[in-house]
Design a protein that fits this description.
Elements lengths: L25 E6 L2 E2 L7 H6 L2 E3 L4 E2 L5 E2 L2
The structure holds FE2/S2 (inorganic) cluster (FES).
């Protein structure tokens, strides 16, 4: 799946209870640079850029390829 950086992914998923990230939507990142906005992954996991929470994070790159 590819989408412009400005497009928000439509997953049908919602934040976990209380509006907090739960990690249920962690998705493989195949290419591109995520803009991580979750509190689920560690700093090291976010720096690896190989998974992202697609309900709340965005893209820093023009193209982001996800393993859906
Ligand atoms: S659905 Fe919980 S972090 Fe995305």
């Amino acid at each position: 799946m590819t989408a412009p950086a400005s497009a928000a992914p439509t997953t049908g998923l919602r934040f976990g209870e209380g509006g907090r990230c739960c990690g249920a939507c962690l998705t493989p990142v195949l290419a591109g640079e995520p803009d991580h906005r979750d509190e689920v992954q560690t700093d090291e996991e976010r720096a690896a850029n190989n998974r992202m929470t697609i309900c709340c994070s965005r893209s820093r790159s023009a193209e982001l390829v996800l393993g859906l």
